[in-house]
Design goal:
Strand order of the largest sheet: 1-5-4-3-2
Radius of gyration: 18 Å
Number of helices: 10
Number of strands: 5
Length: 255
């Protein structure tokens, strides 16, 4: 099992950068630089220039942006074991998102009954984006506020920590586990977020990164799976925190 794919996805930062660009808060050059750091050369599904995908998104969202609607222009969709993607069941978009551990991005369009779903495929040094038109009604997302998502993640983390402490867990496998966790947290934050991202969203992403780094340290670096029941229960809360952070950032961009 690829633990990192379960607790972190570059699509989180892609969503925020793309939303900031669509709302005019970030330049095209800065967007492309950030996406290159996250996934190498950006391409369309057939290998065409990613600029074509950007032009499509710009056209398809022009009226939404002009109206200044506060509902998030795009949303991050993450899923995992026992947690289906928030997309219409049985559709091409739902299947593509469920099969992709990195998740997907749903973009609202000028037509209220139509959305675009962006699904990445990663190869060495490149990311290819498939754009799927979705006309079926979308399931309602959790729409957690940053505070609610943060509280749920904090509570679940404390509960897991208490369970681990009760088990009397100790490990000498890493000489400095705190340093390892810090290094991984730094990795998750590369290349960082746009300067315009609201502080509450950034704080929520940072907490999710910290918890994800702890899970990866114990399971992948120490190779200790005796705590899996306590740690893996946090996956869903990490995903919720990341999706809530993106939704909050996109709402803030629309102000």
């Amino acid at each position: 099992m690829d633990m990192r794919a379960e607790v972190w996805s570059p699509v989180q930062n892609v969503s925020v950068w793309l939303g900031a660009w669509l709302w005019g808060h970030e330049s095209t050059d800065d967007l492309l630089d950030a996406l290159s750091e996250l996934g190498g050369e950006q391409q369309g599904a057939e290998g065409e220039s990613f600029v074509d995908v950007m032009s499509l998104l710009r056209r398809e969202t022009a009226s939404v942006i002009e109206r200044g609607e506060r509902e998030p222009l795009l949303r991050l969709v993450l899923s995992g074991p026992g947690d289906a993607p928030a997309l219409p069941a049985g559709t091409e978009s739902a299947r593509a998102a469920a099969e992709n551990p990195a998740g997907a991005i749903v973009v609202r369009t000028n037509n209220r009954d139509r959305n675009l779903v962006l699904v990445p495929t990663y190869a060495v040094g490149a990311t290819r984006w498939t754009v799927i038109e979705e006309t079926a009604p979308l399931p309602s997302p959790a729409w957690l506020s940053p505070g609610e998502a943060d509280e749920l993640l904090s509570t679940a983390t404390n509960e897991s920590a208490n369970l681990i402490e009760a088990l009397g867990y100790r490990s000498d496998a890493l000489p400095n586990p705190r340093l390892t966790v810090g290094t991984l947290s730094d990795f998750y934050d590369t290349p960082g977020l746009p300067a315009t991202v609201p502080g509450r969203a950034a704080k929520l992403f940072a907490r999710a990164d910290r918890v994800a780094a702890i899970i990866e340290t114990v399971t992948d670096r120490i190779q200790d799976h005796s705590l899996d029941p306590q740690l893996l229960r946090l996956w869903r809360h990490i995903r919720q925190a990341r999706m809530a952070g993106v939704a909050y950032a996109l709402t803030d961009f629309a102000r």
